[in-house]
Design a protein that fits this description.
85 residues, mainly alpha, 434 Repressor (Amino-terminal Domain), globular
Length: 85
């Protein structure tokens, strides 16, 4: 998955939904991984519920993602293969 810059709640919930779908998970399966009910996952993805930060971290972790903060306009590009080896 490519690094994404998210600047609002809608972008975040869309990114979480996209990742869940890319992994082939149902809302029920993601909920089980994150310790949430499927209805709760649905409300978060649909933007009808604003979750606590701890809930967002549970979802992020369950989806195998990391949350990275950076200064606006100064997000470092991913290293090239020559930078790695």
């Amino acid at each position: 998955m490519q690094t994404q810059i998210l600047r609002d709640a809608t972008s975040l919930t869309q990114a979480l939904r996209s990742r869940r779908r890319a992994l082939g998970l149902t809302q029920e399966e993601l909920g089980q991984r994150a310790g949430l009910a499927a209805k709760h996952v649905s409300r978060i993805e649909n933007g009808t519920h604003e979750p606590k930060v701890s809930t967002l971290f549970a979802l992020i972790s369950a989806l195998g993602l990391d949350l990275v903060l950076g200064e606006a306009g100064k997000v470092a590009p991913a290293p090239s293969i020559t930078d790695i080896f």
